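Record pair follows.
FIRST:
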Amino acid sequence: MAGNVAALTGSCVWLVVATVLSLPVSTTHSIVGATVGFSLVVHGTKGVNWIKMASIFGSWFISPLLSGIVSALTFLLVHHLVLKKPKPLEPGLKLLPIFYALTAAINLFSVFYKGSHLLHFDKIPLYGVLILTFGSALLVALLVKFVFTPWYRKRILAEVAKVKDKESLSSISVDNEFGKSRDVLVQSSVHMAHSSVKEYDVDQSGTKYPLKDDKETDVLYTEVEETGTPFNASTPLKSSANGIEDKTPEKDTLTTSFSTPLSNDNSDLPLLEKYDESKVFTKNNDDSKNSSSSSASSSTEDEETKRMIARENVKDKPECVALFSFLQILTATFGSFAHGGNDVSNSIGPLVAVWLIGTEGSALQKAQTPIWILFYGGFGIAIGLWIYGRRVIKTMGTDLAKITPSSGFCIEIGSALTVLIASNIGIPISSTHCKVGSVVAVGRVRSRENVDWKLFRNIALAWIVTVPVSGGISALTMFIFSLVM
């Protein structure tokens, strides 16, 4: 009993820490690591099935890789058949019954095949499972084809019309704002055209001298001051070797008057960047250090900018958004159902053992697990989602990669299909790892900059430390119990 309490403690503490850090880790691997931890304290290395542990270590790579491949291939198929079409609505509506039937088939098979003993699903033979699965999927396809699709077409067309109306109104508003901004820029350029720029050579004592061509300067000191010269757009700008009009005023200073706005051939807006020459430049030995630090900061900012731009370009057409939105919700619901069946079962396993020891004096289960324990686990996962779920939801839904309805559907279908196939052929797999692998793979297919690779690295490191950390906490707890008891 103490060992199971230690296992629950180890897995619980690590899962809470990982969730606070917004890292999606495997509940299954947490409870496995915690079980191994207390077993090492009680029985030593002989109490651990190391071959089984090696298969769990292998799942760190197998799960995301398999799921990522399946999800990426699914997305490429959807992209070829629907997304890249000039008018994706009709191709999408034709494939809608197949999408719904596939979703239903995957989830129904996972429910019926080796299903609940309480509901007697485990007594259904394989051919019965296949008949129930594909018969139900066919019924879903027919209902979607003849009942749902006609109504959905009208609804999508209405929603697309609303979206296009909003976009047209937004475009008009942007054009008006651009016109106002252009007027302000023109007025600013006219005001700047009344300025004159004075450049001086400053010696080490701070005395200013007129800038001369044959003198090597230590500091270039530039002043901009109002001259009141009337703006004359017809007067050309005379250039000298240094790119500005060169004339010598009475006070033996070099004065440059800008008498026309600068413009290029592609725009009628003044180019105000020229006025940056009014800055003060100094030769300093620390410039190289400042330059290196600023370049590193600039590099990081450039990466963030590229990622933001890439994610802005990852979008579905309005028709595709409407087509796949409900499909994404449906597949996410089934995915949550599968997570509940898998993760709750793993997490309450030690609790069931504690209950059996307390009531029957042995961990060998002869009777069915009481319903109240199952409801207890379901209540716990619901409360956890309510309180802490938003952290991991944000990581998976927005931070790791931008997800649209179409890519979200492919991610859910790919990960569910991978878990179903792998679990039934005996490949060790984690549903959490599968979902992360699908998000990264589909995000990478859409755009390389769409994926936050640093975040993915942190998630992968969290996977690796899950077993040893939860096991270490469990082992420490069990060691304390052994000293006290």
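SECOND:
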Amino acid sequence: FGTRRGLPYSATETDILTFLNGLPIWNESGILITLNDDGRPSGEALVKLDNEIGLNDLRDYNGKYMGTRFIEVFPATQKDWFGEEMRMKLSDMTYVRLRGLPYDVTKEDIFIFFSRLMISRDGVGLLYGPDDVPTGEAFVQFMTREDANLALQRHNQCIRSRYIEIYKSSLTEVYRAMEKQYEINREEILRRSRHRPANFPPKFNADPYSHVNSYYTDGYSFPQNKSSQGPMRRSRESKNRSNPYGGKNSHSSVKVETQNFGEFLGPLSIHMRGLPYTATEKDVHEFFAPLRVAEVKIQLGPDGKNTGEAEADFYSENDAVKAMEKDRCKMSWRYIELFRGSSD
């Protein structure tokens, strides 16, 4: 067994097999890409080798690069593999999916429905379809596997006059729902913008995540830090945010929730450190090209001067993950450090 650290966050089992070409690895099933407690790739992986000779050869890859990332390689044990595998399985057992909700249901209604069970902070996500129509479905993340199992026992109990169906879910299902929600919102934005005069700001919030945003923000929270927040933790503030169609966001004619289901997948902001003091927003956009940056906020000190830090917001989780591959790349002569999530 061996451990690899420093992987690009978008790295797949196939990428790792290609990088370790020639080593006796048990195909893709011999690679375990580990996740943080919030379900995002940790930048580490465990590799299962057929023999000790393969382990010796694996050490030769220590210090090599995968793309722009410096990769560390060191030995691991079978205990490490099974321990990590079990940890990820347990963390994936805290999600449930609800169906049959009243269309005017609120996050507070769901919190009351699951009274005495501990829901993670920002752990309720309501789903919307085209034209801002609620689907009657939601995801809920609980603090523990035990509470998630107890939640399943409330299957077919009522919220008001509606029988609620409750099913086991997973972080993978949450990710898929989030991507689908994003596409629905993006198509809605494009459809409505086609019917408005050119260069005229939309009457609705042009942030595609405005309706992914729907989480209950009071409750319980699992341990997290500023750079690694939970999958349903961080808020995206739509007000005063520039939109991709020109102009500033105006008051929305589409219902906009202030708590944010958009962060079901984690923060879409990246904190940058080590910028040249002369860096501009244009420099940040060019640094992440060809990825599209939604907004750049250069941080200034009390004296009004550039602090060498900035926030870059992205439109999708995929773009944010790809952007992290620029960690420790250069802007001019400076190496730039990147961290997931805002510094706020």
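COMMENT: The helical segments are 13-19, 52-58, 78-91, 107-113, 145-152, 171-193, 281-288, 317-323.
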